[in-house]
């Protein structure tokens, strides 16, 4: 599995909760595959509603990484 830190642009010192939400989105995509979970599942994974979009950003970054031509095995 690729290291999410190489892809996340959120600074840990400035926005640790957002960075954690991003990481959870990345990890979810890498473990579960391309089927996006329900909104309820996403809400359970993030600490605050405003972090749902950040979670989706992490999920999207992992999805792009996994579906890019350079990642094909």
What kind of sheet is the major sheet? none
Q: How far apart, in Å, are the first and last alpha carbons?
A: 13 Å
General form:
flat
Mean pLDDT: 90
User: Number of helical runs?
Assistant: 3
Question: Layout of helices and strands, plus pairs?
Answer:
Blueprint: H1 16-32, H2 39-45, H3 52-67
Pick out its properties.
flat; 3 helices; 55% helix; 73 residues; mainly alpha
Summarize the structure.
The protein has three helices and no strands. The protein has 73 residues and is mainly α.
Structure description:
By secondary structure, the chain is an all-alpha fold. It has helices spanning 16-32, 39-45, 52-67. Helix 1 (16-32) crosses helix 3. The longest helix has 17 residues, at 16-32. The mean pLDDT is 90.
């Amino acid at each position: 599995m690729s290291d999410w830190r190489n892809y996340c642009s959120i600074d840990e010192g400035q926005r640790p909760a957002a960075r954690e939400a991003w990481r959870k989105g990345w990890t979810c995509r890498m473990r579960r595959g391309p089927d996006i979970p329900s909104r309820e599942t996403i809400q359970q994974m993030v600490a605050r509603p405003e972090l749902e979009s950040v979670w989706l950003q992490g999920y999207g970054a992992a999805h792009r990484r996994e579906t890019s031509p350079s990642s094909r095995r």
